[in-house]
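can u do me a favor
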């Protein structure tokens, strides 16, 4: 949690010398608290006071980076318990689990399958980011061979999991120099061993166990200079894992308890794949920075990625698209013209139904600041005036030869005014996007052309 201005002021020299370019120490403290000045700008601040203030003003949850620069995955540094208080900053990374015991051919097939696991939803591409490779074979050679195949085929950030710190170190050093894989030693490894592993590989570590043991080990590692740590409850039940992730977030944010101020890795694996996928959705909602999952089938993975997309959307900024007149399919001048808002979910719902209908259309996305049809109408952002302005702005009359538009059924009340103001013939369409296909096939043909 950021320090307040008065907390900073108490630690300043309070000499009002103006050397920082600010008239008083208090004004300087306020600027630092607002992020408009840095502590180093005060040349009279002692090193001890600077260190104390820097430590106190550090984010309550650490930021950990996985993968190679310049595009690492950033995890943690969350600032709130509840999304609506601000937003969640760094989306959960989904790591699909692979065993090195699967054999090289199966691993190659899995890599090919991984590349196909992409979905487009409301204009965004959803996909898993990582592979979690488990040293189930217990063989260092098989582990290394599997890691090499995955690295060569995918090049994505990885979680390397093994009972043996030695095996993790050897593979990380040989294959992942500068790539920051997450090293998760699932066996008993002392703090000294883990610190050495970090030193020789430069990779972040995962420390698993109970809240108490994890806090102790994170503190001991921090004392040895190891700060890039992700914590986990390990392979425990969903309820135990939830208690772990919730308590760590509360301890870090509410009590500024640094040893638990680390991103959390959750395991969502089990024989019942559907139940495990559901567990993964829960972990996405409740604080996991990384979820290790067996959801290789698209129908299991998509709900996890969708949950993540929803949870990590800024609640104060609707997902919106650029307003405009969009062509869907091979449009002609006879193609229907549908009107909606520039709220992504509204637009892409309409677009999806148009694509399914196989009837090419133009869609006018009116600028409603990313709000949906009814919300925008209630806020007076989707009305006769704004739609008429959008028709003119995007030269809709030049693109079609029929002078007819389809208005969402939910705002049928503005149809007459819109027809009068715009000069277009207004057809009232279905209330829900799912009715667009039948509407185009039946009503448009009858009433439209
Ligand atoms: Fe105060 Fe330091 Fe600024 Fe001088 S340089 S006014 S001591 S904050």
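np, heres the sequence
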């Amino acid at each position: 949690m950021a320090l307040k201005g008065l907390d900073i002021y108490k630690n300043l020299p309070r000499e009002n010398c103006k050397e920082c370019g600010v008239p008083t120490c208090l004004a300087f403290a306020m600027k630092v608290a607002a992020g408009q000045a840095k502590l180093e700008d005060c040349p009279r601040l002692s090193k001890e006071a600077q260190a104390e203030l820097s430590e106190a003003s550090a984010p309550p949850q650490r930021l950990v980076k996985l993968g190679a620069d310049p595009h690492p995955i950033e995890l943690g540094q969350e600032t709130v318990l509840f999304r609506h208080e601000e937003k969640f900053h760094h989306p959960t990374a989904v790591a699909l689990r692979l065993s090195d015991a699967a054999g090289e051919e199966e691993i190659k097939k899995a890599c090919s399958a991984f590349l196909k696991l992409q979905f487009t939803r409301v204009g965004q591409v959803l996909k898993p980011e990582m592979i979690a490779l488990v040293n189930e074979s217990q063989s260092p050679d098989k582990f290394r061979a599997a890691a090499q195949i995955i690295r060569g085929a995918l090049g994505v950030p990885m979680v390397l999991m093994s009972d043996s710190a030695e095996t993790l170190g050897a593979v990380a050093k040989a294959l992942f120099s500068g790539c920051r894989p997450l090293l998760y030693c699932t066996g008993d490894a002392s703090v000294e061993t883990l610190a050495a592993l970090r030193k020789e590989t430069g990779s972040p570590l995962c420390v698993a166990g109970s809240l108490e043991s994890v806090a102790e080990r994170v503190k001991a590692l921090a004392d040895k200079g190891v700060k890039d740590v992700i914590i986990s409850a390990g392979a425990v039940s969903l309820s135990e894992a939830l208690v772990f992730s919730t308590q760590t977030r509360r301890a870090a944010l509410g009590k500024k308890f640094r040893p638990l101020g680390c991103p959390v890795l959750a395991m969502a694996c089990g024989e019942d794949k559907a139940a495990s996928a559901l567990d993964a959705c829960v972990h996405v909602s409740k604080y996991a920075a990384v979820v290790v999952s067996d959801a290789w089938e698209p129908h299991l993975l998509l709900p996890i990625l969708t949950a993540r997309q929803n949870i990590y959307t800024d609640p104060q900024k609707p997902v919106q698209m650029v307003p405009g007149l969009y062509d869907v399919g091979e449009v002609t001048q006879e193609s229907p013209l549908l009107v909606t808002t520039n709220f992504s979910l509204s637009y892409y719902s309409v677009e999806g139904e148009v694509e399914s209908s196989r009837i090419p259309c133009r869609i006018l996305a009116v600028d409603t600041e990313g709000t949906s049809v009814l919300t925008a109408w209630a806020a007076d952002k989707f009305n006769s005036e704004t739609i008429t302005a959008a028709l003119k702005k995007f030269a809709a009359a030049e693109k079609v030869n029929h002078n007819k538009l389809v208005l969402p059924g939910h705002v049928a009340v503005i149809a007459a005014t819109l027809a009068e103001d715009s000069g277009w013939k207004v057809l009232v369409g279905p209330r829900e996007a799912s009715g667009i296909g039948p509407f185009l096939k039946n009503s448009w043909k009858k009433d439209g052309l």
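The radius of gyration is 28 Å. hope that helps!!
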